[in-house]
Amino acid sequence: MIDTIKLEMSITKARITKRELAKQLGISEMSLYNKIHNISEFKASEIRQLSEILELSDGDRQAIFFA
Fold it and tell me: pTM for this one?
């Protein structure tokens, strides 16, 4: 289960829209919403991509996805 609040804060900090984020991940906006809100899970490749796009540190990535 991911930390939705920390992920939302990281997205805001990166100044990227969820529409653009979904596009960069190659998924629909609805799929991104479901993953952010723990309805479905992020794939390992998506976590890697998100870490790069949002410029997450190792600690941030751990706190968000593996808490």
Answer: 0.91
Does CATH number 1.10.260 belong to domain 4-65?
yes
Phi, psi of 25 (to 5 degrees): -80, -15
Segment (H or E) for 31 = helix 29-36
Residue tagged 């289960």 (tokens): 1
Number of Cβ within 10 Å of residue 66's Cβ equals: 10
Please report which helix (H) or strand (E) contains residue 41, including its range: none
Using DSSP's 3-state secondary structure scheme, residue 34 falls into helix
Domain ranges for the chain: 4-65
For residue range 8-60, list pLDDT tens digits in order.
999 999 999 999 999 999 999 999 999 999 999 999 999 999 999 999 999 99
